[in-house]
Amino acid sequence: MARILIVDDEEKIRYLLSIMIGRRAHLVDQAKDGAEALEMVSSTPYDMVITDMKMPRLDGTGLLKQIMLLDIPCPVVFITAFATVESAVEAMRMGAADYLTKPFEEESVLLTVERTLKLSRIMAENRDLKKQLDNGACASKMIFESKVMSDIIDLAAKVGKSDSAILISGESGTGKELLAKYIHGQSLRSHKRFVPLNCAAISPNLVESELFGYEKGAFTGANKRSIGKFEYASGGTLFLDEIGDLPLDAQAKLLRALQEKKIQRVGGNAEIPVDVRIVCATHQDLDGLVEKNRFRRDLYYRINVFPLSPPPLRERKEDIPALAVHFLKESFNGNDVVLTDGAKRLLAQYPWPGNVRELANAIERAVILEENNAITAQTLSFLKKAHGPGENEGDYKLPPDGVCLQTLETDIVRQALDMAGQNQTVAAKMLGLTRAKFRVLMKRD
Question: Is-above-0.70 flag for pTM?
Answer without folding.
Answer: no
